[in-house]
């Protein structure tokens, strides 16, 4: 199963060629299910390889149901205003659940004050890179922006969830000083890190129980955003470097410094 091909930002042509090659090989024990938004290039290639099934309307109904559930908690809003906001989110979301989820998260920052929410909607980013830009730009402390990027680097290397206490220890270094040393007396506060990383990571099962919390990258588009040369705005790049190379260098440097600190 290959899900969300449209979220693949690199090597799209190679991926499409590989899919076509698998189909042409007519392997008796291999079946492919591929999902994607209806981008022209994907439709042109995949239509020749198999059967196309349109899900137009299905995803939109799921998104509407999710938005209804969230807005139903705002008893002080009239049904008309809720419908107005839901319609606007559906239009701006373009059938992307992830984007609508993040747009609703941005609306929460308005305190669910109706006038503020409507104003926020008028200036709401309509693409994942743009909304990720906004999240990062709203983090005012440069040190925290750097911690966000180091968090993404660590999670990239791990390839899966990482214990929150271990992540906090991995950030407990003054990376501007030489030699690098582990400093457990000045850890990043878990609540502050999770709040800053909101939209980029997901935490389970409970952010208030740090002994059980696990942190992972929230969505594949997060990694794509950080590693893309076009992703980060110039105002952020000075604090942020995320790539497979920088991730492995960070992990190796941090682990060696940790061992040398005792």
From TrEMBL:
Keywords: Repeat
A UniProt-annotated Pfam family: NPHP3_N
Keyword Electron transport: no
Domain Nephrocystin 3-like N-terminal: from-to ranges: 1-37
Signal peptide boundaries: none
UniProt-recorded name of the protein: Nephrocystin 3-like N-terminal domain-containing protein
Lineage per the UniProt record: Eukaryota, Fungi, Dikarya, Basidiomycota, Agaricomycotina
